[in-house]
Amino acid sequence: MLVQSRVRDAGGTRVILIALAFGLALIASVGFASACAIHDAVHDVRQATGLSCH
Length: 54
Known about the structure:
Blueprint: H1 10-31, H2 35-48
């Protein structure tokens, strides 16, 4: 007789919850930021990586 036990992977659930929290924080922080602040942040990142913006 073969007995199988099921072990739940708690690591996968933790990763999903962390990704969900990060995504919600990102949406909330960008959602409340002004358009000028978002443009300046993206512009600075593009300049720092060597890409031209405009």
